[in-house]
Write a structure and sequence with these properties.
45% strand, elongated, 9 strands, alpha+beta, five-stranded antiparallel β-sheet
C-alpha cells in the first residue's frame, strides 16, 4: 500500500515539474524594455515577472559580442550585469555602452535552476540621444 502511494506522489511531482518547466518556457519570466538608445549607449529595463528569483549568467549584443560595458543599477550603484540576481517582481535598470548600434540583445539566465537563452530585438526608440 505504501509503495502505491509513494509512486503516485513521485509521479505527481514529476508531472508538476514538467508542467512548471513548459509554462516558464512558453511564458518567459524575464521582460525587457528599451528605455533609451543612442549611437553609443542603450538603457534597458529588465523585470522578473516570475515567482522565483533569476540569475543572469551572460549578456551579449548583436552577433553574440560581449559589450565593453553592461551594468545593472543595484542599490544606487552600478555593477556588472553578469552574475546579478533579480528577485521575483523586481525591476532593474541596465546600461550598455557599445561601439556600434545595438540590433539585438541576448540574455542567458537561470530560473528555478534551469538555464534559458532569450533574444530581444532592439529597434531605435526614436527618443534621441542622451
Amino acid at each position: 500500500m505504501k509503495k502505491k502511494i509513494r509512486s503516485r506522489v513521485a509521479g505527481l511531482v514529476v508531472i508538476a515539474g514538467f508542467a512548471a518547466y513548459f509554462y516558464s518556457s512558453l511564458v518567459p519570466p524575464l521582460e525587457l524594455q528599451i528605455q533609451k538608445t543612442s549611437a553609443v549607449h542603450t538603457m534597458l529595463s529588465a523585470e522578473n515577472t516570475g515567482f522565483l528569483s533569476m540569475k543572469i549568467e551572460a549578456f551579449y549584443i548583436n552577433n553574440n559580442e560581449v559589450p565593453p560595458e553592461a551594468l545593472m543599477n543595484i542599490k544606487d550603484s552600478w555593477r556588472p550585469v553578469r552574475g546579478q540576481k533579480v528577485s521575483a517582481g523586481q525591476k532593474k535598470n541596465i546600461g550598455i555602452l557599445h561601439d556600434l548600434p545595438v540590433k539585438q540583445i541576448v540574455i542567458v539566465y537561470k530560473y528555478a535552476g534551469i538555464p534559458y537563452t532569450r533574444t530581444y530585438p532592439v529597434k531605435d526608440s526614436g527618443k534621441g540621444g542622451f
